[in-house]
Amino acid sequence: MDFNKICVLGLGYIGLPTASTFASHGIHVIGVDVNPQVVSTLQNGDLHIYEPGLRTLVQAALRSGNLEIASQPEPADAFIIAVPTPFLPDKRADMSFVVSAAESIVPHLRPANLVILESTSPPRTTIDRIAPILEQSGLTAGQDFYLAYSPERVLPGQILRELIENARVIGGIDPASAEIGRDLYQIFVQGEILLTDATTAEMIKLMENTYRDVNIAIANEFSRLAVRFGVDVWKAIELANRHPRVNILRPGPGVGGHCISVDPWFLVEAAPDLTPLIRTTRQVNDSQPEFVVASLAKALGGLAGKRIAVLGLAYKPDVDDLRESPAIETAHLLENAGASVVAFEPNKPNAEIPGLKLASNLADAVEEADALLLAVSHTPLRSLDPSVISQITPARVVFDAVNGWTQERWQAAGFHFFRLGAG
Question: Is 67 within 8 Å of 29 (Cβ atoms)?
Fold first, then answer.
């Protein structure tokens, strides 16, 4: 099947790279977002998100004329839904963005069109929710148009490479839909393309992220046990991982981002009677910021009135993505415990977070601090020179929640050094 025009709905961390990559391969792409600020920013040649190499790719796609930015879908050969699926306060999936995107396609759907859902979704979403919405067009899914689910499986910071090189799973509501989906992604995907049914494809994405969540949870529990037993968890993990069949992950202040911290709840929602381990895993990782705060309180002899510089707010190193960040939760908990917090995020220095005071540079963040908390292992934070830092802050206590600093260097510069999980 030939694809001359594609409509990508949602221009975030997945939709924008996907739209731009298709455009760079000569396809006419309409990139759609309902946020007027996102639309105007992109139409002016600027970007609202950071991803290495993305600015160059997007601007080239816009200059070529292959990528157009719009606020509403247009008729196309294929539609890709790549909108967010956050969760509600009760941990159920918020499918409102997906539903709205599907509804916006209905007036433009034509026979032989392909619709792909990429947004992470609970099992059976494609069959039970998307198909009925699209069939309001009068067309029948699997008979008059093709419908499939294909999860994104990329790592922030490496999205542009992994979009092309990673294996791609495509699950159709019928075999023909999966095969047509393969035709679409073969335009740029160099990795293996694996075909299955839609519900299996939905499960695969959730299984991948839940697997990682479970493994991070055991590492975080090990960090708590290490403190109880007077063990350095980092040294213990290093030695345990010398076993050929053991690979314990790194503990930290929790799990964030829009995937690992969210997706497992979709399985809990879909089958609460079958997911006690997954639910407990989420509870362990969600409570890890409390362990960080308690550990810092012990190091400082209490938090009330203490001035703490929180260094790093993104959900993982070397990205600017703040979604579901455990570092932000940690900062809020410190404030709630009576501390005065100033936070600094080097990859988003002008960010605004309700309830938190943010500094636009490192010096302003630490200038009045009693303690420094390394909450994210960003490269520029990891490489700080303690002797330089000692000249710009009165703080003499540092707490490393991510094993990013060398204890001996900070102690030599006159700091009292504490590390998460080091009993």
Answer: yes
